[in-house]
Amino acid sequence: MRDPKLNSEQALFSHTDDYIKLVNLARKHPEINELTVKDTNDFLHQLSTLNASENSVPLFVKILANDIQILPADPTQISISGNEKIVYLGQKLNVLSSEASQD
Amino acid sequence: MVGPRGIVAAGIASLFGLELMKQGVKSAELITPLVFMIVLGTVLLNATTARPFAKLVGVFQQDLKGVLIIGSSSFSRIVAKYLKENQREVVIVDNNPSNVKLAKQMGIQAINANIYSDDLSENLELSDMGYLMALTGNASVNQKAIENFSGQFGEKGTYRIIFLKR
Question: Could you give phi then psi for residue A9, rounded to 5 degrees?
């Protein structure tokens, strides 16, 4: 079930975050945080960092003030212009930007 | 809203036009086509200007912002609270009264209903909803919710949580 091809476009959040993980994380860290992204590369980098952590699950993409887009399991469906924020459940993380992490 | 605009005026004009023509009133034959032209003209005017006017006065609904969440787990309630704080209309549906009560205590609109047996359209205004998030711990319930509401929200408006074999 971890194969993205086995989950439809209707799958939420990611191909690895299931109900048990979400409910456990909501109990452990019942907070929602936001993370600003600069561009598509930064977006995908931050997303993979958040997905890799056991203490965070990306949920939405916040565009402008209050326009919120549900994050599908396939993040390439989202177009990034540079003013977006990743909204995630879990512990507040100090995620390095994609440029900084390459240095 | 689509309806038979001007049908009363057109009907009366036809009736009276014919009657007046029988009585030999001058230009009575023009009444019916004139009324039909006015009806057609106002319908076209309404159709072409309503949207720009609504945008101009700031009452045009850009997008359906409401989110219907199936399942009121602790995770669902946190998500609903965040969406509500960001001016999204949110409704949670759950068949567990305790979970519904917890959601209501957080100020979230919540309905005690079963998607298998209850007609949700009787309990809430689905026309305000743009998205469905099926977040229950039961894959079958989530799939049923997607099937029930895909007609309402479309394929791009219905989402469900995934399930992994552990």
Answer: -65, -20
B147, two tokens: 């099937």
Assembly ipTM: 0.78
**Are B94 and B48 part of one and the same domain?**
no
Least confident window among A43-47, B24-28, B53-57: B53-57
User: Taking CB atoms and an 8 Å cutoff, what residues of chain A touch B78?
Assistant: 26, 30-32, 89
* Mutation to test the A interface, candidates B85, B162, B166, most A Cβ within 10 Å: B162
Does residue B61 lie within any of the structural domains? no
Interface contact B26, partner A, CB < 8 A: no
B123: Cα separation from own chain's centroid: 14
Reduced to 3 states, what is the DSSP secondary structure of residue B17? Answer: helix
The pair of three-digit structure tokens given for residue B133, joined into one six-digit string: 């998030």
Q: Which residue has the tokens 């209903």?
A: B113
**Angle, to 10 degrees, between the axis of helix A19-28 and the axis of helix B74-85?**
70
Distance, in Å, from the CA atom of B35 to the CA atom of B135, rounded to the nearest integer, reads 56
Confidence of residue B104 (pLDDT cuts 50, 70, 90): very high
In a domain, B2, yes or no: no
Q: What is the pLDDT of residues A34-51, one digit of tens each?
A: 888 888 888 888 888 888
Q: Which domain holds residue A28?
A: 4-92
